[in-house]
Design goal:
heterodimer; A: alpha/beta; D-Maltodextrin-Binding Protein, domain 2; 7-stranded mixed beta sheet; 6-stranded mixed beta sheet; 17 helices; B: mainly alpha; MetI-like fold; 14 helices; about 0% strand; globular
Chain lengths: ~450, ~300
């Protein structure tokens, strides 16, 4: 090798002196930042017990949760909870699992209830003490049965739900009015068949001139699964995933659901190639009249000042059903939990549940019935218009690999995206997905 | 070595002093590399050996299944079509990325070497992307590749082209990743070429010009052959860097769509951290490690043979 002369300094752009000065400044800034953030950890009243709280809520949800945590801290000087917010999906769940596997996990965390089968049986979570919870005013009777049961594993309760967040239908009331699809009550007319839905969407498309419906799914297994599973369950179908046996599915129902989705993604009713952000932007900018989305996008619409309303996704295939999941409080496994600290966690969680009307403002349906049954919630619009979704919730089929942000959704995307995007054969796409599930089911359960 | 042996034979009594000094110098040398050696041992050798053990167990993330299960993981991996597909993707990425990363770097270096005005600006703009963190690069390009709002599709649309779902279409996603990677890392190769260009003696060009060689003849007969050692170095570095691609794929497509961009390292990550199966994940790592060793040895063999011929 010849000697390499790296010609950076020759132009006077980068001198040794400036590099040293720059590095010193960077080191100084880093030192300052770490020390300042260090200050933030120690807060609250003197003697307050610090609680470490992990969650994956960002955007509007994140702001609301920060408010709830601040409120809980100020109401209860005995503890001071600090949040660590991690990226939604795989990054969060890998970190939470690693922390729990090491036994030095945060004191309390939020998980999707659908991820419980991948965590609780493996000892990554500690169960809740129901007597202690009742002592702080939270009992099983305070939750709708399906939501409470989603927190159970092998007979014990591992997660206490904060909310249920179904997939819903939002619509632009101005566009709907112009399209003549509003009923006398000012809400979207009743829809009970796929044809009616298509008809309403086409009328809205005639108004916007762009699309009738917004739905983003490209590269996003969670989005594909949410709408698919809603239709699949509306068809009365079930999916059972038992390790050691083949997946039990209803292939005909799956094909019907996928073919209806293909029909909607025809570049007229909805764009054939929309991703999450594009669909959101389209609906906000009145490029469409309807939007299949999660309740969590409600604050976005409010902020944008859009004239809109929301409802449960209409029952088009006979059985009322929607896809949903819950944000739920869990106790990540600690090898040697401090009982005093644990008890403060119960106070913290019960406080947030009792304040969860604020969480309803972020769009979610609170799980805590005293809130849902309160007059404030009945007055909260459009939240109250889809509160009935809580009765027809469907969580993911149970298996260690399913749930929000899991590989399960990735596998669904791998096999189904081409069905939706390139309109390939729906049956073949779904069969590919089932084959993938069977491979996973044939392997030993790592949990 | 020979000199030491001779001196010992010739003057046994005086031999102890230089030997002792050498001993002391060796000691100082070891002391100097000790800090590195400790980290090397703790964070490379120990995990590598531990990983071999792990690959023969059914260890999961939850701590279960730590028992020895023989070669079951290896047998499963070798029959796992997803693993082979990820290896295929990795090789495809390496082929697609290595060639432009070298050719484009060479072209840029030669152009800058021509003595264009504003040298510093060219050097800076070609090298700057290399200084960015992978997450920043990924975010830039995710937005530029956006099918509806992205810069690239608006540009295509301006010329009447159809919009392309760059990161969502399995047929083009890998190419999109390669384009990003080339933009991001070509600056390093460019810099090495530029340095090497400045080491080519000016007299050779003068002599060639006197003999009537034009610019093109000079490029092919002087510049490129003189850059050969740098090219060899870059090919070796680039192939190894491309084989371990992970960051931009994880951030831009997560291995999708439909596994079309899932590299081997991505698959190892998924098997271990989202699939919880550390043992299986380790087994894939060692299979991949074996492949890389084979690639490296064949590279050195080919290079050595060529070196011996010339």
């Amino acid at each position: 090798m010849k000697e390499l002369r790296i010609p950076i300094g020759t132009g006077g752009v980068l001198t040794r002196r400036s590099v040293i000065a720059g590095t010193a400044a960077a080191v100084g800034a880093t030192w300052l930042m770490t020390n300042l953030s260090g200050c933030a950890v120690v807060g609250g009243a003197p003697g307050a017990i610090p609680l470490k709280f992990w969650h994956l809520l960002s955007g509007g949800d994140g702001i609301k949760m920060a408010g709830l945590v601040d409120e809980a801290n100020s109401q209860n000087p005995s503890f001071f909870a600090t949040q660590t917010v991690l990226t939604w999906g795989t990054p969060y769940y890998t970190k939470l699992a690693m922390a729990s596997a090491g036994g030095r996990a945060p004191d309390v965390a939020i998980m999707h209830a659908s991820r419980l089968p991948g965590y609780a049986p493996g000892g990554l979570l500690d169960p809740w003490d129901l007597d202690l919870l009742a002592h702080y005013g939270v009992t099983e009777a305070d939750f709708p049965a399906p939501i409470w049961n989603a927190g159970k594993s092998e007979g014990r309760v591992f997660s206490i739900a904060l909310d249920a967040h179904p997939f819903i239908l939002m619509y632009n009331t101005d566009i709907a009015a112009q399209a003549g699809v509003l009923g006398a009550d000012g809400q979207l007319i009743d829809i009970s068949t796929p044809d009616q839905f298509v008809d309403v969407a086409r009328k809205m498309q005639a108004v916007t001139g762009v699309h009738g419906l917004s739905y983003g799914y490209l590269g996003d297994g969670a989005q594909m699964w949410r709408l698919f599973y809603t239709f699949y369950k509306q068809l009365g179908a079930t999916m059972t995933l038992e390790p050691g046996t083949e997946a039990v599915v209803d292939e005909d129902a799956a094909v019907t659901a996928l073919e209806f989705m293909q029909l909607l993604l025809d570049d007229t009713i909805a764009t054939a190639s929309g991703d999450y952000a594009t669909a959101l932007a389209e609906f906000v900018n009145s490029g469409s009249g309807m939007f299949f989305t999660g309740v969590w996008e409600l604050p976005t619409m409010v902020t944008a000042g859009l004239p809109f309303d929301a409802r449960t996704i209409p029952t088009m295939f006979g059985t009322p059903a929607v896809y949903a999941d819950s944000h739920a409080f869990v106790l990540p496994h600690q090898n040697d939990p401090d009982p005093v600290k644990r008890e403060e966690v119960y106070v913290f969680v019960s406080q947030i549940l009792k304040d969860s009307i604020a969480w309803a403002q972020a769009g979610h349906i609170p799980a805590f019935l005293p809130i849902v049954e309160s007059p404030e919630y009945a007055d909260l619009l459009p939240q109250a218009h889809y509160a009935n979704a809580a009765e027809i919730l469907n969580y993911d089929p149970q298996a260690w690999f399913t749930g929000s942000g899991s590989d399960f959704q990735t596998f669904f995307a791998e096999n189904v995206q081409s069905v939706l995007l390139d309109k390939t054969d729906a049956r073949a796409g779904f069969q590919g997905f089932v084959r993938r599930l069977n491979v996973l089911l044939s392997k030993p359960n790592p949990v | 070595m020979t000199t030491t042996v001779q001196s010992v034979a010739a003057a046994p009594r005086q031999a102890s002093r230089p030997a002792r000094r050498r001993h002391r110098e060796n000691g100082t040398g070891w002391a100097f590399i000790a800090p590195f050696g400790v980290f090397f041992l703790l964070f490379l050798i120990v995990p590598v050996v531990g990983g071999i053990w792990l690959s023969f167990t059914g260890q999961t993330l939850t701590g279960r299944g730590g028992d020895f299960i023989g070669i079951a993981n290896y047998a499963e991996a070798l029959a796992d079509s997803d693993m082979w597909r990820s290896i295929g993707n990795t090789i495809w990425f390496t082929v697609l990325s290595t060639v432009p990363l070298i050719v484009i770097a060479l072209v840029m270096a030669v152009l800058v070497g021509l003595g264009l005005p504003g040298q510093w600006l060219w050097r800076l703009s070609f090298f700057l992307p290399y200084l960015l963190a992978s997450s920043v690069v990924s975010l830039f390009w995710i937005w530029m590749y956006n099918p509806q709002l992205g810069l690239i599709n608006s540009f295509l649309g301006f010329f009447g082209g159809e919009p392309v779902a760059w990161l969502q279409d399995p047929d083009v996603a890998m190419i999109a990743i390669v384009v990003t990677t080339v933009w991001w890392t070509v600056g390093f190769n460019f810099l090495l070429y530029l340095a090497a260009l400045q080491n080519i003696p000016e007299q050779q060009y003068e002599a060639a010009a006197l003999d009537g060689a034009g610019k093109w003849r000079q490029l092919f007969s002087i510049t490129i052959p003189q850059l050969a050692p740098t090219t060899v170095l870059l090919v070796i570095l680039q192939v190894l860097a491309s084989l371990k691609v992970f960051d931009q794929i994880y951030q831009m497509t997560g291995g999708g769509p439909g596994g079309a961009t899932r590299s081997t390292v991505e698959y190892i990550f998924e098997a271990g951290f989202t699939g919880y199966r550390f043992g299986y994940s380790s087994a894939i790592s060692y299979i991949f490690f074996a492949l890389i060793v084979i690639v490296s040895i064949s590279q050195f063999t080919i290079m050595n043979r060529r070196g011996a011929r010339s």
